[in-house]
Amino acid sequence: MSSSVLNLGGMQSVSTMTGTIDYSQIIEQLTQANRAPGDALNSTIQNEQLKQNDWSNVAKLATAVQNDLVTLASAKTFSSFTTTIGGTDSSAVSASASGGATAGAYAINVTQQGSKASLTSGSEIGKAAALTDTVNSNEFSQPISLGTISATIGGTTVSHTVTGSDSIDSILTALFGANGSQVSWSMNNNQLSISNNTAQNITFGTAGDASNLFQVLGLTGQALAGTGGSVKSSLVGHAQLNSYLASANFASSLSPTTSGDLQLNGVDVKYNTSTDTFQSLINSINSSTAGVTASYDPLQDKMILTSNTSQPVSVTDVSGNLGQVLGLTSGVAGAGKPWIYQINNGPAQTSASATVASAIPGVSFTMNQTGSATLTVAQDTSALTKAVNAFVGDFNTLYGQLNTYTGKGGDLQGDVAIAQLGFQYMNDVLNTLPGMTQFAQQSVWGIGVNNGAIGSAPGTTNSLQVDSGALTTAFANDPSEVQSLLTGMATRLNTDLTNLTGQFNALTPNSLYSQNISGIAQNMENMYADNIKNTEQQQQQIYDQAAAQAQQMQTEFNQLQQFQQQMAAQQNALAAMLGSLKGY
Prior knowledge:
The protein is of the alpha+beta class. It is 38% helix and 22% strand.
């Protein structure tokens, strides 16, 4: 008996009565064939992505050029000057020049060296110490460390262990016995006086002492000659720099109000006696515009205000009495002397400050000592050449990339939106500028910026070149011409680059600000992004259709498999029936 066959479109003939079919392989082959058009779109997507990235890179490079153009057209680029000091006493003067300077030479003769005025506390500002004050009192020039302290009487060393409850009086008693026996001591005018009543020499302190009391008092290493030898300590009681003003151990009491206003040279310095330390007050004065430098002298226990000039220092208590407590409202003034100088043998001039900023336009000079010096002011070309070279470098990068993208085999070959940009930008740089008839040159060609290598014919290269020698010479001859040409070129090129990037800056014309410019590059990026999105959607539709067809085939093959199984069962049943009839 012959069996029927199932023809699968020429792919394979399969018996429907016996055997099995590899349905999964058939479905996979058919699905791959259905997905092939979608897979072919990957190349299109990749090409569109390359073009989108190219436009993004062009915008990035063009923005860098725009930034260079802003710097190039800045007034600072053309208004830098250098100063050189020469002459017989070149160390007598130092100087700097700003944008308003004029090139030239100036003979400066300093005939009198000035000195700064000062104001010093009229008396010690710290509270005087007493013999019975404990060593942990907040009054010494530095904290007293505890531990062993020693003295040598003749050849015998005597020691005492200092504790926080000790006083100067108790320590001296422990070392030398009762006051007036071996040694006599007293406290007068905030200084400790000690005299020797023995015939032996007495020395204060040893190398192994743990306590620094004798060091703080200025007695370490000092010797008392036998019988009648005497010594005085340094000041004992001091104002405390790191304590709040209200508890800084001042000799005079502060007014009850915590807030105050100390005026120096007409400048208000506000303070709070509960939250400001003596040191923070000094810092506030020094950071103010009062024109003084404040300091505390622990040797004299006085505050010193040193003026920045020869002008006297004035101190007024607007509120509170801190100026009085610091001894400044009735302080000792130190007179200053003005500086006296001549410029180009002109009349003698005086200055309270060593720095003079108004005698020579755009120039500030500082007198250091007496003597004669020559100040030469010259145009500084370093800022200009740096700005021009930075622009040329970034422009060439942009120009070269445009040529690469649009050249043979480039991603954007044939893209009309970008094909002429490089040519347009090069013309923006090199073409004649309008409104320049008053100058000898009409474009940047004449000042050393062109697209021909130095020594070659103009126009023979594909990138910009800078002849630094020609540029600096042109700038020295006519700074206004160079500034006008470069600024005009920068403005023209920046306008076209703004149309490309959509980036506004200081050179962007006002007319463009009123327009909603997104930039050619962004528009092209958006176009390619839409193309990619549409292609990806088309690709997904193909894949979805292939998947649906695969699902349909799977269903049909499942049905076919069921039919095959049924036929096989019927075939087996028929074979069995025929076998049972063989006996008849």
